[in-house]
Each structure stands twice: as structure tokens, then as C-alpha cells.
Design a protein that fits this description.
Elements: E1 2-9, E2 14-19, E3 40-44, E4 48-60, H1 74-77, E5 89-101, E6 106-108, E7 120-123, H2 126-133, H3 145-151, H4 156-168, H5 173-193
Helix pairs in contact: 3-4, 4-5
Length: 197
């Protein structure tokens, strides 16, 4: 399901997308659960899908702090407001994690391709998430781990925690045990890693 469109980027792997709203004619409005923290998304390209995860959000409200004079209350302005576009909206921070090619082969790391402005962002389901994370031997991989730690800033630990929870719910018991060890390490880092001795 299409949930947003790319509007800009902060870097080659850190993109900003605007959630589809009532101004996007002909588009079905996504449910808030479709663009929550830790949701995996895809940006389709030629021969591959770039896979990312939502790690941040921002509300846009240009009217807040606008102390200019008004010609009347909104209800009374009626059609006279036609010159103004409703610019309130939601922006999503999307961290790119890798790609899945048309043959189904997943690759973790920095995608080579630049995602253009206007590119549709679609929510992917649990099966696609697992396809991105599990190799042919059935093992879960998180080769993008350093990428998340380096680029998601203060959201890195909660994001990795969310990703691990999603994967644990869908993988084998032995793989879930491996992920739980990683999660315990993250809890330790979050609890004691920032403490100065």
C-alpha cells in the first residue's frame, strides 16, 4: 500500500517522505498504523526495490507561530481561502537499509541508486520483511546494523529493538534466540552505555 512520497533527503540513505493526505487526488489515505515507527517500506526502482525503515517523523504546520492579521475566522472565510493551500502534513524519516532485486535476492547495505523526488513509498508486509532478512539457509541477517547505529542517531537503539521484535515474532525459535541475545546487548548499551564512569 502506498503511504507517502519522497520530498527530499538528508543524505544518500536518509530520506524524507510526506504522508499521503487529502490533497493527493485519487490516492487512498493510509491508516496511521501504516506509517508507524519501525515500519519497513519499499521504494520501487528498475530491477529492484530499495528497502528502508521509518525511524523518525515530523509534523508540518506553517500556521503555528504565524501571528499575522486575519481577515476573519476560518468558518467565515469560505471560498476566499481558495488562494491558500493547506500545507499541514506529516513527514517521515526513512533510513535506507538495502535492496531486494526482482529475483528475490536481498542485499543489506547502502543502495547504489539515488531515489528521486516524488518516488512512491509503499508499506511492505511481514513476508517481504522476512524475505529481506533471511538467507537461503534460513538464518536471519542484520548486516545493516552499523548503518542504523551511525545514522539513526538517538533513535538507533529503539529502532533496532523494534526491528528485532518484528523478526522474533516471525522467525524460527533458534533464530529468535540469537536475536534475543542481540536485544539483551542493546538493552545493556541503552542502560549503561551512556553512563560516564
Amino acid at each position: 500500500m502506498k503511504i507517502a512520497r519522497v520530498v527530499s533527503s538528508n543524505s544518500h540513505i536518509d530520506y524524507i517522505a510526506r504522508v499521503i493526505d487529502s490533497l493527493d487526488a485519487g490516492e487512498a489515505l493510509p491508516h496511521p498504523s501504516d506509517y508507524c515507527f519501525g515500519q519497513f517500506v519499499a521504494l520501487q526502482g528498475e530491477g529492484e526495490h530499495v528497502i528502508g525503515v521509518i525511524y523518525d517523523s515530523r509534523l508540518v504546520n506553517p500556521e503555528y507561530g504565524s501571528f499575522g492579521p486575519r481577515s476573519g475566522p476560518r468558518a467565515e472565510l469560505g471560498g476566499r481561502k481558495a488562494d491558500f493551500v493547506e500545507e499541514q502534513g506529516m513527514l517521515l524519516g526513512i533510513l535506507l537499509l538495502g535492496t531486494i532485486d526482482d529475483a528475490g535476492k536481498a542485499s543489506h547495505g547502502v543502495p547504489r541508486r539515488i531515489v528521486p523526488v516524488g518516488q512512491a513509498v509503499t508499506r511492505i508486509d511481514k513476508d517481504q520483511v522476512m524475505q529481506f532478512h533471511i538467507d537461503r539457509g534460513g538464518q536471519v541477517h542484520l548486516h545493516y546494523y552499523p548503518q542504523v547505529v551511525s545514522n539513526a542517531r538517538q533513535f538507533a537503539l529503539p529502532l533496532l529493538d523494534s526491528i528485532i521484535d518484528q523478526l522474533c515474532a516471525a522467525c524460527s525459535e533458534s533464530e529468535a534466540q540469537r536475536l534475543k541475545v542481540l536485544k539483551q546487548s542493546l538493552v545493556w548499551q541503552g542502560t549503561f552505555g551512556g553512563m560516564k564512569l
